[in-house]
Amino acid sequence: MYKIIKREELNPSVIRMDIAAPAIARKAEPGQFIILRVCEEGERIPLTIADFDREAGTVTIIFQIVGKTTHMLGQLNEGDDLLDFVGPLGMASRYDQPQKAVVIGGGLGSAIAYPQAKKLHQMGVEVDIIAGFRNRELIILEEEMRKVSTRLFLTTDDGSNGVKGFVTDILQKQLEQGVKYDLAVAIGPLIMMKMVSNLTRPYGIKTIVSMNPVMIDGTGMCGGCRLTVGGETKFACVDGPDFDGHLVDFDEAMRRQQMYKAEEKQTLEAHICRLSGKENADA
Amino acid sequence: MPNLALKKVPMPEQEPDVRNTNFREVALGYTEAMAVEEARRCLNCRNKPCVGGCPVNVRIPEFIERVAAGDFAGAYEIITSTNNLPAICGRVCPQENQCEKFCVRGVKGEPVAIGRLERFVADWTMENEPVPPIKVDKKNRKVAVVGSGPAGLTCAGDLAKQGYDVTVFEAFHIPGGVLVYGIPEFRLPKAIVRKEIDALRACGVEIKTNMVIGKVLSLADLADEGFEAIFIGSGAGLPSFLKIPGENLNGVYSANEFLTRINLMKAYLFPNCDTPVRVGRRVAVIGGGNVAMDAARSAKRLGAEEVYIVYRRSETEMPARLEEVHHAKQEGIIFRLLTDPIQIHGTESGWVRALECNEMELGDPDAGGRRRPIVKPGSQFLLDVETVIIAIGNTPNPLLKNTTPGLETQKWGGIAVEEETMKTSLEGVYAGGDAVTGAATVIQAMGAGRKAAQAIDDYLSGRRQDPENPACVVGSEVVEM
Ligand SMILES: Cc1cc2nc3c(=O)[nH]c(=O)nc-3n(C[C@H](O)[C@H](O)[C@H](O)COP(=O)(O)OP(=O)(O)OC[C@H]3O[C@@H](n4cnc5c(N)ncnc54)[C@H](O)[C@@H]3O)c2cc1C
Ligand SMILES: Cc1cc2nc3c(=O)[nH]c(=O)nc-3n(C[C@H](O)[C@H](O)[C@H](O)COP(=O)(O)OP(=O)(O)OC[C@H]3O[C@@H](n4cnc5c(N)ncnc54)[C@H](O)[C@@H]3O)c2cc1C
Ligand code: SF4
Ligand code: FES
Known about the structure:
By secondary structure, chain A is of the alpha/beta class. Chain A is 31% helix and 31% strand. In chain A, helix 5 packs parallel to helix 6.
């Protein structure tokens, strides 16, 4: 069992937790992920290692409540246990020493991008961060991101904070103004990572994206997480999750993401229904 | 006077069109009376040809003689003197290629139902006389086992019985390897695997799940933690794909993914379990082994109306157990033999629509003696299906090799070992099962686990514990994959 040491709400649907997992904390590197299970009938879901503390023996996860498993996870409190917690999986991010990098995070992707920005910052790289959110209530990790960046651009889709618009608008402007980046790291919805890759391609800027296909084992034994990268089939869980954005077949990845939409809706609705039934009965 | 009936006592089974809608076990097992009657067919041959056909040399006529005498506990003792997991082997071994192939009764009529009797004895014992764990003198020496499939479990059990402190590290959240994530409930109930594993725990074997060795701990870390020897039984978990166009369409599964969703994650209970699996009205399963049969029969049970086995050779070349082919046919699986898939076609939104195939005919035998299929010119056709499951084989997962410097493998990925001892290129590190041979059988994996346990005991008995001169030597530099 893996105890929840700390729990914090970053915004109404995004939660950060520190989990006691000393063996994983000892080995974890930015870019890797864990797979967890909340209950006996539950799914195995992958979450990025957002941070780790080797001394304290904890691994930090940040997750957005989107479906049944993340909903159940969000209802757990400090002191509760997770049933299964396995990792560190996937390859650590590796950068050769760039001069100036831009890290682009979309929504929750900002939380996943933050450790990358921090790592680059610690390597002495000049880092710009562009982080986009739907509205100001959803902004997370602003202070943390500011600390590890030279410039932090915040955008909201509705203009309620920072610049109104998408992260790609800012990136485009920077590129057009002649800002020279030699690395772009983009983490967020598939469509955002695709747009970023399209923008950086003509400038020849190396672009790393973090792919998040549906996974089961996370060790390369099912092939469910397969992607086409540069015309070759890759398993995101062992060959990634980081890939060269200029080589990824995003359209295929977006299509595969849809595979279980109906079933996901069904489990979530049944879950919410059961919960509200219980709450009603309690009242 | 032996029972001279030419046929085996029939096995009670669920009716085909009942069982193809549920996941309960198909074969229900002999009663005591049936077992005794079948056991009386054995001639107790002096030269025991059956024993030679068994990879772990179960003392077959001796245990069958006990069954005939009604002494089932005695029979169990004889079986388990060479086979740790009889309830599993009785159910999944390809007996027709092993013990029963050599049975004298098979010359005229059917061989003795050795597998069914083995299963009966194991089930009877679990039910009536659970065996108490044996007390052993602890040696206070630690051995690590990577992987909890039949190879790892057998090795762990043998070493624990010799007094070693054995820890099994398993990547998944449940131990058992293919026995839990691959072979379906209707062929091997998971409760049986669990009982066998509980029995090992009772012998002192510690099992740590959620431990992907090579990631959370390297082999070098295990050596540093004081494990004096390591056995690798990590199986052959890497699914092969066909490399034909359309393989990444929605609705295309590797058999590993399909079966893992169903067996390990219990997708057949969806929505009561959260992991889903998608099965179309028509399903094509590509391959002709046990894995293909299991996938096809699972698809049928999940409601598919038409399930095809698409295999490029003829039925004689099929590697599946005879009983599985027979059961699959009874359950309404349609066999498209001499059929070779060349492309998967999709709908506009990217879901599988059809499997395009060539018809084949058999040519001259290849090096292995199997007749090579060749394409019939101009024979392409479309098989309309919504789901395609690829069951053409698995190779060893490269994860351990890639994170363990100095661990030598064959070109195709199998871990290289010395045949007599199962020792790898690293001092104190042994390997066996599918990780060494590629996809094979449960009993072969068990045989390898047993051989390695013996060699590990020989190795460690021959040297004293000495931190200055550790028994297990693994370079600590980790090569990233
Ligand atoms: C390598 C990797 C790292 C990730 N890191 C994070 C993270 O740090 N924080 C975070 O909030 N989310 C992360 N995700 C996504 C996260 O795994 C999904 O949000 C989660 O699985 C949703 O589960 P659910 O039951 O709540 O929702 P569901 O209703 O089951 O699904 C909602 C969506 O989540 C995705 N999803 C569902 N099941 C899986 C699965 N087994 N594996 C992968 N994706 C799935 C699908 O796209 C689906 O449309 C990551 C995914 C991957 C592959
Ligand atoms: C669907 C299917 C049906 C089959 N039917 C039959 C049958 O009817 N009869 C028969 O005799 N054989 C059958 N087989 C073959 C048989 O199951 C295998 O040959 C046998 O299980 C191999 O045993 P093993 O111990 O070598 O490996 P496995 O059973 O594959 O076990 C390996 C274990 O190691 C774990 N592991 C892998 N890597 C790591 C790591 N890095 N760290 C920690 N753990 C790790 C895996 O998760 C797994 O649990 C079937 C196989 C399949 C897939
Ligand atoms: S060969 Fe057949 S008849 Fe002879 S001992 Fe073995 S099981 Fe009995
Ligand atoms: S999640 Fe199964 S191979 Fe990647």
